[in-house]
From TrEMBL:
The chain crosses the membrane at residues 31-48, 60-81, 87-105, 117-139, 154-174. This is Uncharacterized protein. Keywords: Membrane, Transmembrane, Transmembrane helix. It comes from Pontibacter chinhatensis. The lineage of its organism: Bacteria, Pseudomonadati, Bacteroidota, Cytophagia, Cytophagales. The keyword Membrane applies.
């Protein structure tokens, strides 16, 4: 059990390090475009022994499906915002949808032990990411509290990828009894 917890922590830490490095070393402000690809690579590499298909095929499939998930998520945020007439709720729903979609992508090549429960956990963790980012922005010193989600997506992407990485890792390593 302790080994599983350590593997989940290793995945979370790898997601955090990767996305922080991507955003804070990017000089052209394009990290939001390639961070989903890095996220897929980190999830696969930190859980490589749990991949049930050819590892290179899993990596290729994950990278190919990351781009459509990214664009579907962006369009979903716009659509949800128009439908519910509330930008924050639209972002929450779009975040939860994209987390669920990435969980489904990862379930293609990982053995997911509790599919429905972990899909729900991942979607909820993705949905709370905007609130976590807002909390960090408002209540932790040293983070620019005047930057909005659209103006500075780095903190949102960091929170989202760490939380969704947690949800996917739980799906890979924890079995519901």
């Amino acid at each position: 059990m302790m080994a599983k917890v350590l593997r989940i922590l290793a995945t979370i830490i790898a997601c955090l390090i990767t996305v922080v490095c991507a955003f804070y070393t990017d000089k052209n402000n394009q990290a939001a475009l390639y961070s989903p690809f890095l996220f897929i690579v980190v999830i696969i590499l930190t859980n490589l022994d749990q991949v049930r298909v050819n590892k290179l095929k899993a990596l290729g499939l994950g990278l190919m499906l990351a781009l459509p998930v990214f664009f579907i998520s962006a369009l979903a945020v716009v659509a949800f915002t128009k439908i519910v007439k509330d930008a924050q709720l639209g972002i929450v729903l779009g975040s939860a949808l994209s987390a669920g979609l990435l969980f489904l992508v990862n379930s293609l090549y990982f053995n997911i032990r509790s599919f429905k429960a972990c899909l729900a956990i991942t979607a909820v963790l993705g949905g709370i990411a905007p609130f976590v980012a807002q909390f960090f922005r408002l209540y932790l010193p040293g983070i620019n509290s005047s930057a909005g989600l659209v103006e500075d997506p780095a903190l949102f992407f960091i929170c989202w990828q760490v939380l969704v990485g947690l949800g996917i890792s739980i799906g890979i390593w924890v079995k519901a009894d």
